[in-house]
């Protein structure tokens, strides 16, 4: 998974931590690329958007109901033009959803 834009990263990570307190931080594309720099020649870089249902996402970690409510409130506020969360939420079939940005990097070991 790759981080949202830098200006929303802190907010995005805070919501991730609300949901799962073992969360630390999501790396940016540049930080992932830097992991390759010294030992690998980057061969392929691909981003895939993976749709996520907000309620299912919170259920995965048994997020307490009061925290779920706080997260839902933040997402709804974002949806209604308020403070951005970095999740870019949207409504699908009456449910709040968002897309995780998965990053695939394939490298070749340098000699």
How would you describe this structure in keywords?
single chain, 4 helices, Rossmann fold, 3 strands, elongated, three-stranded antiparallel beta sheet, 111 residues, alpha+beta, 29% strand
Can you describe what's shown?
This protein has 111 residues and is α+β, with helices and mostly antiparallel strands. The protein has a single domain, classed as 3-Layer(aba) Sandwich (Rossmann fold), CATH 3.40.50.150. Helix content is 41%, strand content 29%. The chain has a three-stranded antiparallel sheet. A hairpin with a 2-residue loop joins strand 2 (90-92) and strand 3. The longest helix has 15 residues, at 65-79. 12% of the residues are buried.
Detail the topology: elements first, then pairings.
Blueprint: H1 6-19, H2 29-37, E1 40-53, H3 54-60, H4 65-79, E2 90-92, E3 95-109
Antiparallel strand pairs: 1-3, 2-3
- Average of the residue pLDDT scores: 93
Query: Care to count the β-strands?
Result: 3
Superfamily (CATH H level) name: Vaccinia Virus protein VP39
User: What's the CATH architecture?
Assistant: 3-Layer(aba) Sandwich
The N- to C-terminal Cα distance equals: 28 Å
Strand content: 25-35%
Strands across the major sheet, in which order? 1-3-2
Integer tally of domains = 1
Q: What order do the SSEs take from the amino end to the carboxyl end, as H and E? A: HHEHHEE
The CATH C-level class name: Alpha Beta
Biggest sheet descriptor: 3 strands, antiparallel
């Amino acid at each position: 998974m790759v981080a949202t834009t830098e200006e929303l990263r802190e907010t995005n990570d805070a919501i991730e931590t609300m949901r799962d307190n073992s969360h630390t931080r999501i790396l940016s594309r540049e930080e992932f690329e830097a992991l390759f720099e010294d030992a690998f020649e980057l061969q392929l870089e691909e981003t895939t958007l993976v749709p996520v249902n907000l309620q299912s996402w919170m259920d995965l970690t048994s997020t307490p109901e009061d925290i779920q409510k706080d997260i839902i409130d933040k997402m709804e506020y974002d949806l209604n033009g308020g403070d951005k969360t970095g999740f870019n939420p949207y409504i699908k079939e009456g449910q709040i959803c968002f897309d995780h940005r998965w990053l695939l990097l394939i490298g070749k070991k340098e000699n």
